[in-house]
Amino acid sequence: MSTTRQTTPKRTPKRATAQITKRKITEKEALAHLRDLLAYIGDDPAREGLLETPHRIVKSWDKIFGGYKQKPQDVLKTFVEGSCEEMVVLKDIEFYSTCEHHLQPFFGTISIGYLPNGRVLGISKLARLVEVFARRLQIQEKLVAQIADSLMQTLHPHGVMVVCKAKHMCISSRGIEKHNAVMVTSAIRGAFNKLEVRSEFLEMIK
Protein backbone atom coordinates (compact mmCIF):
# COMPACT_ATOMS: atom_id res chain seq x y z
CA MET A 1 0.00 0.00 0.00
CA SER A 2 1.38 3.35 -0.99
CA THR A 3 1.13 6.27 1.33
CA THR A 4 0.79 9.90 0.34
CA ARG A 5 3.11 12.18 2.15
CA GLN A 6 1.56 15.47 3.16
CA THR A 7 3.75 18.51 3.40
CA THR A 8 2.98 21.61 5.34
CA PRO A 9 3.50 24.77 3.27
CA LYS A 10 6.24 26.98 4.56
CA ARG A 11 5.14 30.18 6.15
CA THR A 12 6.72 33.32 4.94
CA PRO A 13 7.68 35.45 7.92
CA LYS A 14 5.92 38.77 8.02
CA ARG A 15 8.06 41.78 7.43
CA ALA A 16 8.33 44.11 10.33
CA THR A 17 6.86 47.48 9.47
CA ALA A 18 9.36 50.22 10.11
CA GLN A 19 8.06 52.95 12.32
CA ILE A 20 9.22 56.26 10.90
CA THR A 21 8.90 59.18 13.24
CA LYS A 22 8.58 62.47 11.39
CA ARG A 23 9.97 64.47 14.27
CA LYS A 24 11.63 67.71 13.25
CA ILE A 25 15.36 67.52 13.88
CA THR A 26 16.67 70.50 15.81
CA GLU A 27 19.57 72.62 14.64
CA LYS A 28 21.60 71.40 17.62
CA GLU A 29 21.08 67.79 16.53
CA ALA A 30 21.92 68.61 12.91
CA LEU A 31 25.20 70.23 14.00
CA ALA A 32 26.08 67.16 16.06
CA HIS A 33 25.39 64.84 13.11
CA LEU A 34 27.57 66.99 10.84
CA ARG A 35 30.45 66.79 13.31
CA ASP A 36 30.06 63.00 13.30
CA LEU A 37 30.19 62.98 9.49
CA LEU A 38 33.37 65.06 9.51
CA ALA A 39 34.91 62.47 11.81
CA TYR A 40 33.56 59.64 9.62
CA ILE A 41 35.40 60.90 6.53
CA GLY A 42 38.63 60.91 8.52
CA ASP A 43 39.08 64.45 9.73
CA ASP A 44 39.04 66.05 13.16
CA PRO A 45 35.89 68.15 13.71
CA ALA A 46 37.58 69.78 16.71
CA ARG A 47 40.44 71.33 14.74
CA GLU A 48 40.40 75.08 14.14
CA GLY A 49 39.51 74.99 10.45
CA LEU A 50 36.45 72.78 11.04
CA LEU A 51 35.08 74.20 14.28
CA GLU A 52 32.55 76.44 12.52
CA THR A 53 32.04 74.25 9.46
CA PRO A 54 28.81 72.59 10.69
CA HIS A 55 27.33 76.04 11.35
CA ARG A 56 28.37 77.24 7.88
CA ILE A 57 26.81 74.18 6.26
CA VAL A 58 23.49 74.62 8.06
CA LYS A 59 23.41 78.31 7.18
CA SER A 60 24.14 77.53 3.50
CA TRP A 61 21.21 75.12 3.44
CA ASP A 62 18.81 78.06 3.90
CA LYS A 63 19.67 79.04 0.33
CA ILE A 64 20.58 75.68 -1.23
CA PHE A 65 17.37 74.00 -0.03
CA GLY A 66 15.21 77.11 0.27
CA GLY A 67 12.69 75.68 -2.19
CA TYR A 68 11.17 73.52 0.53
CA LYS A 69 9.88 76.69 2.19
CA GLN A 70 8.15 77.91 -0.98
CA LYS A 71 5.12 76.82 -2.96
CA PRO A 72 4.63 77.42 -6.71
CA GLN A 73 1.38 79.30 -6.13
CA ASP A 74 3.26 81.77 -3.94
CA VAL A 75 5.33 83.01 -6.90
CA LEU A 76 3.00 82.53 -9.86
CA LYS A 77 1.01 85.75 -10.13
CA THR A 78 -0.98 85.85 -13.37
CA PHE A 79 -2.37 88.79 -15.37
CA VAL A 80 -5.26 89.08 -17.83
CA GLU A 81 -4.16 92.50 -19.05
CA GLY A 82 -1.45 92.21 -21.68
CA SER A 83 -2.31 88.63 -22.54
CA CYS A 84 -1.49 87.46 -26.07
CA GLU A 85 -2.01 84.44 -28.27
CA GLU A 86 1.61 84.03 -29.36
CA MET A 87 4.20 81.88 -27.66
CA VAL A 88 5.95 83.33 -24.61
CA VAL A 89 9.51 82.15 -24.00
CA LEU A 90 12.10 82.82 -21.31
CA LYS A 91 15.34 81.04 -22.13
CA ASP A 92 18.66 80.30 -20.46
CA ILE A 93 17.48 80.73 -16.86
CA GLU A 94 20.49 79.83 -14.74
CA PHE A 95 19.88 77.39 -11.90
CA TYR A 96 21.73 75.43 -9.25
CA SER A 97 20.36 72.26 -7.69
CA THR A 98 21.46 69.23 -5.69
CA CYS A 99 21.27 65.64 -6.92
CA GLU A 100 19.23 63.54 -4.50
CA HIS A 101 21.28 60.40 -5.25
CA HIS A 102 24.75 61.62 -4.23
CA LEU A 103 24.10 65.08 -2.72
CA GLN A 104 26.30 66.56 -5.45
CA PRO A 105 25.50 69.82 -7.27
CA PHE A 106 24.14 69.97 -10.77
CA PHE A 107 23.69 73.25 -12.61
CA GLY A 108 22.95 74.77 -15.98
CA THR A 109 20.11 76.54 -17.75
CA ILE A 110 16.38 76.07 -18.13
CA SER A 111 14.25 77.44 -20.97
CA ILE A 112 10.46 77.70 -20.64
CA GLY A 113 7.83 78.36 -23.27
CA TYR A 114 4.04 78.51 -23.00
CA LEU A 115 1.05 79.35 -25.16
CA PRO A 116 -1.21 81.74 -23.20
CA ASN A 117 -4.89 81.05 -22.75
CA GLY A 118 -6.15 84.43 -21.61
CA ARG A 119 -3.55 84.96 -18.87
CA VAL A 120 0.19 85.65 -18.72
CA LEU A 121 2.88 85.69 -16.05
CA GLY A 122 5.27 88.42 -15.01
CA ILE A 123 8.63 87.54 -16.54
CA SER A 124 10.41 87.17 -13.21
CA LYS A 125 7.83 84.63 -12.06
CA LEU A 126 9.16 81.99 -14.43
CA ALA A 127 12.65 82.42 -12.99
CA ARG A 128 11.26 82.29 -9.45
CA LEU A 129 9.38 79.09 -10.26
CA VAL A 130 12.65 77.50 -11.35
CA GLU A 131 14.13 78.44 -7.97
CA VAL A 132 11.23 76.87 -6.06
CA PHE A 133 11.94 73.44 -7.51
CA ALA A 134 15.69 73.68 -8.14
CA ARG A 135 16.47 74.58 -4.53
CA ARG A 136 15.59 71.10 -3.33
CA LEU A 137 17.03 67.61 -3.54
CA GLN A 138 16.26 66.80 -7.15
CA ILE A 139 16.79 64.78 -10.27
CA GLN A 140 16.80 66.63 -13.57
CA GLU A 141 13.93 64.63 -15.07
CA LYS A 142 11.64 65.48 -12.18
CA LEU A 143 12.71 69.13 -12.12
CA VAL A 144 11.43 69.89 -15.63
CA ALA A 145 8.23 67.92 -15.03
CA GLN A 146 7.41 69.82 -11.84
CA ILE A 147 7.95 73.19 -13.54
CA ALA A 148 5.75 72.24 -16.50
CA ASP A 149 2.97 70.77 -14.35
CA SER A 150 2.90 73.79 -12.03
CA LEU A 151 2.44 76.12 -15.00
CA MET A 152 -0.32 73.96 -16.45
CA GLN A 153 -2.18 73.84 -13.12
CA THR A 154 -1.81 77.54 -12.26
CA LEU A 155 -1.79 79.36 -15.60
CA HIS A 156 -3.99 76.91 -17.58
CA PRO A 157 -2.22 77.67 -20.87
CA HIS A 158 -2.75 75.83 -24.15
CA GLY A 159 0.58 74.15 -23.58
CA VAL A 160 4.01 74.29 -21.91
CA MET A 161 7.48 73.08 -22.78
CA VAL A 162 10.53 73.10 -20.53
CA VAL A 163 14.08 72.23 -21.61
CA CYS A 164 16.96 71.83 -19.17
CA LYS A 165 20.68 71.51 -19.95
CA ALA A 166 22.92 70.73 -17.00
CA LYS A 167 26.28 69.47 -15.84
CA HIS A 168 26.32 67.04 -12.93
CA MET A 169 29.15 66.89 -10.40
CA CYS A 170 28.19 63.32 -9.57
CA ILE A 171 29.62 62.18 -12.91
CA SER A 172 32.48 64.67 -13.16
CA SER A 173 33.96 64.63 -9.63
CA ARG A 174 33.40 60.90 -9.03
CA GLY A 175 32.30 57.74 -10.80
CA ILE A 176 32.89 57.88 -14.55
CA GLU A 177 34.59 61.34 -14.27
CA LYS A 178 33.30 62.86 -17.51
CA HIS A 179 33.78 66.61 -17.16
CA ASN A 180 32.20 67.88 -20.37
CA ALA A 181 29.04 65.76 -20.39
CA VAL A 182 25.81 67.77 -20.52
CA MET A 183 22.45 66.17 -19.74
CA VAL A 184 19.40 67.47 -21.63
CA THR A 185 15.84 66.81 -20.49
CA SER A 186 12.45 68.17 -21.48
CA ALA A 187 8.84 68.21 -20.36
CA ILE A 188 6.14 68.64 -23.00
CA ARG A 189 2.52 69.45 -22.21
CA GLY A 190 -0.57 70.30 -24.25
CA ALA A 191 -0.13 72.03 -27.60
CA PHE A 192 3.63 71.49 -27.56
CA ASN A 193 3.01 67.85 -28.44
CA LYS A 194 2.35 69.18 -31.97
CA LEU A 195 5.53 69.09 -34.03
CA GLU A 196 5.15 72.59 -35.48
CA VAL A 197 4.66 74.18 -32.04
CA ARG A 198 7.54 72.26 -30.52
CA SER A 199 9.79 73.13 -33.46
CA GLU A 200 9.02 76.85 -33.10
CA PHE A 201 9.99 76.74 -29.44
CA LEU A 202 13.22 74.83 -30.07
CA GLU A 203 14.17 77.31 -32.77
CA MET A 204 13.60 80.22 -30.40
CA ILE A 205 15.85 78.81 -27.67
CA LYS A 206 18.84 78.03 -29.91
Mean pLDDT: 89
Order of helices and strands: HHHEEEEHEHEHEH
Distance linking N and C termini: 86 Å
Give the helix/strand class.
alpha+beta
Biggest pleated-sheet summary: 5 strands, mixed
Please give the count of helices: 7
Number of strands: 7
What's the SSE blueprint?
Layout: H1 27-40, H2 53-64, H3 72-75, E1 78-79, E2 88-99, E3 105-115, E4 120-121, H4 123-134, E5 137-138, H5 140-155, E6 159-168, H6 169-172, E7 183-190, H7 195-204
Structure description:
The chain has 206 residues and is of the alpha+beta class. The protein has helices spanning 27-40, 53-64, 72-75, 123-134, 140-155, 169-172, 195-204; strands spanning 78-79, 88-99, 105-115, 120-121, 137-138, 159-168, 183-190. The protein has a 5-stranded mixed beta sheet with strand order 5-2-3-6-7, sandwiched between helices. It has a two-stranded antiparallel ribbon with strand order 1-4. Strand 2 and strand 3 (105-115) form a beta hairpin. The longest helix has 16 residues, at 140-155. It starts with 26 loop residues before the first helix and ends with a helix.
Main features:
206 residues; alpha+beta; 5-stranded mixed sheet; 7 helices; 35% helix
How would you sum up this structure in a few lines?
With 206 residues, the protein is an alpha+beta fold. It contains 7 helices and 7 strands.
